[in-house]
Task: inverse folding
């Protein structure tokens, strides 16, 4: 655990003892013998944690605490004193102190307090970072679209996000934007103020999945030197996003199924059962029914996660989105790299629409970023694209020719509307009152539109 600690105490023996102890634990330790020195060292080093004596030779520790918290509110300050009282402890906490320890203290007590302070600080920093990332991604490229098919899909996602459904499965090829849909489900839900916690199931070794998901107690296994909260527990009140759930091994699938059914878990090495309230969004690029048939994915887990599904079509099936996305990425990259690009030349747009995009939106973003980095022009031209992409695009049939007689298969507006209404009713469990609220129409209007052809669960509540 790499972190810096400032020890401010007017007793030399205590300063030296704490420096030796904390240095052995891997901390970078700085010392101060007075209030003035403590303030000077604090400004020089900006430590992660301060161990501050309440009674310094030339200053009141509470005054020093007040100055430190005004200068750097996120710094964790642990007060230590031989003259501890309830009143002084309360005052220290009101001023922003992290902890209060009375002298004489056990050395292990100090180490534990510093570790907890560092852990809290790191967690707060990560939460702030993730919040900023979410703010930057909100309204991002995954929602840039022109295809009516995506408009309908995103309307469904909005309904699902607001609903109480506890589990959603997002399917689609790699690079189609499944993570962005998971964020949309979170940000559009009543849980938006809670955490959004992500686990890439394909990136975690099978023997570590349980610890990552459910956490562990100190000493649960050889490397478990400290208690660790699992992602399930961290996601309480928010959303847990399990990316590439189809890559989980058999043991992890069994433990996940138990959690999804009971919404309870045990940390590894613990006996206490804990309950959490988090929406789970799972995503996969695999064909789960085929995986079930091949006995590589549990059938009961499949039926559990497959209740409400959002399927993202590949980019080649929504060519109308290509230009809108490319223009968005071009503006994004031009700002990042300081280039003059303002538009996409018509002939370039035609080539981009003819290309099949096996890497989907992720590949399109990379192609535009590469072209913007390596060239500088006012318009994106065919010469700016990779040669292999040009060759593949020129060999592909034009979009209009490939469509052939597809016009006959285009649904009518009435068919599209009825299909959307039926989908919303399905999401709402057949509750027409709730469905009408989501659709923004009266229950009577809903009844007229669906007639007697839709049946469902509870009719009113």
Result:
């Amino acid at each position: 655990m790499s972190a810096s600690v400032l020890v401010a105490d007017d007793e030399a023996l205590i300063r030296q003892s704490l420096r030796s102890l904390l240095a052995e634990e891997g901390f970078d330790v700085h010392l101060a013998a007075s209030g003035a020195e403590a303030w000077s060292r604090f400004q020089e080093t900006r430590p992660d944690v301060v161990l501050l004596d309440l009674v310094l030779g030339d200053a009141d520790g509470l005054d020093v605490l007040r100055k430190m918290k005004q200068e750097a509110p996120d710094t964790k300050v642990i007060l230590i004193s031989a003259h501890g009282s309830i009143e002084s402890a309360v005052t220290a906490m009101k001023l922003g102190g992290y902890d209060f320890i009375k002298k004489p203290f056990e050395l292990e007590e100090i180490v534990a307090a510093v570790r907890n302070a560092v852990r809290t600080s790191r967690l707060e920093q990560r939460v702030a970072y993730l919040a900023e990332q979410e703010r930057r991604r909100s309204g991002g490229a995954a929602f840039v679209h022109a295809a009516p098919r995506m408009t309908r899909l995103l309307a469904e996602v909005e309904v699902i996000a607001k609903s109480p459904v506890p589990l959603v499965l997002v399917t689609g090829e790699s690079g189609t934007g499944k993570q962005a849909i998971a964020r949309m489900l979170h940000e559009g839900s009543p849980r938006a103020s809670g955490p959004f916690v992500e686990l890439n199931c394909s990136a975690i070794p099978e023997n570590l999945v349980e610890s990552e998901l459910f956490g562990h107690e100190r000493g649960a296994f050889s490397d478990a030197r400290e208690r660790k909260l699992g992602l399930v527990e961290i996601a309480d009140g928010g959303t847990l996003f399990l990316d590439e759930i189809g890559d989980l091994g058999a043991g992890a699938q069994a433990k996940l199924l138990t959690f999804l059914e009971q919404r309870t878990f045990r940390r590894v090495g613990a006996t206490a059962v804990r309950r959490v309230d988090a929406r789970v969004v799972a995503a996969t690029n695999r064909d789960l029914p085929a995986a079930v048939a091949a006995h590589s994915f549990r059938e009961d887990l499949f039926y559990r996660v497959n209740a409400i599904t959002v399927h993202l079509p590949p980019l080649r099936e929504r060519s109308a989105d290509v230009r809108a996305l490319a223009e968005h990425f071009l503006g994004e990259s031009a700002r990042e790299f300081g280039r003059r690009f303002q538009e996409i030349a018509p002939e370039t747009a035609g080539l981009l629409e003819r290309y099949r995009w096996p890497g989907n939106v992720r590949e399109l973003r990379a192609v535009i970023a590469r072209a913007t980095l390596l060239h500088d022009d006012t318009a994106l031209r065919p010469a700016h694209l990779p040669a292999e992409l040009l060759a593949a695009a020129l060999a592909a049939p034009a979009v209009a020719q490939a469509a052939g007689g597809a016009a006959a298969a285009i649904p009518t507006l009435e068919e599209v509307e009825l299909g959307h209404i039926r989908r919303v009713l399905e999401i709402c469990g057949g509750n027409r009152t709730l469905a009408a609220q989501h659709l923004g129409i009266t229950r009577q209007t809903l009844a007229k539109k669906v007639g007697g052809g839709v049946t469902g669960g509870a009719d009113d509540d």
Q: What stands out?
A: The first helix runs from residue 12 to 24. Residues 144 and 215 are 37 Å apart (CA to CA).
